[in-house]
């Protein structure tokens, strides 16, 4: 796979956004004399942070990585496309459900923009320009769905254990299980819509490239 210079900047931005967010969380915990380990567990309990970590990993392998089994796995079309669907969900859900709930300032604003707006855009651009097209199948959507589904189950279990939920639309204490289930299914439906779009674009682009190669012979 050819390397693109802009991928280096994208990878750096990805890790920078994560670093700023983790620093801010740990700083707040330090000032409150709370557990720093607990702060790390909390911050990596967010779907946004987990997915941005996957995004930064893929971009790093694409920009800098040496040949390895991990690089082949992360850069495979099936895995990169699933991560693209997940980070697109992050951007969509944040804009529709969460952005209006707070107005971050300073460094928190920077982290917020990088994690929810800049990195989703850059990774979708990476998927479109770099990831090979034409190999995805409909059953890949089922595999991709395991990630948000397992995250949801984990978030509910953890929230039940400690009484804290990472997102207000899955806060069982406030909404009850019935409404939380409806909200989760709506988010999952959004993920399926994104996934179907990715599958359609992959098929269209793969067919177009195959026809171009056939005509060039």
From TrEMBL:
InterPro entries: Pr6Pr-like (IPR049713). Coiled coil: none annotated. Keywords: Membrane, Transmembrane, Transmembrane helix. The chain crosses the membrane at residues 7-30, 36-61, 73-94, 138-157, 177-199. This is Pr6Pr family membrane protein. It comes from Pseudomonas urmiensis. The lineage of its organism: Bacteria, Pseudomonadati, Pseudomonadota, Gammaproteobacteria, Pseudomonadales.
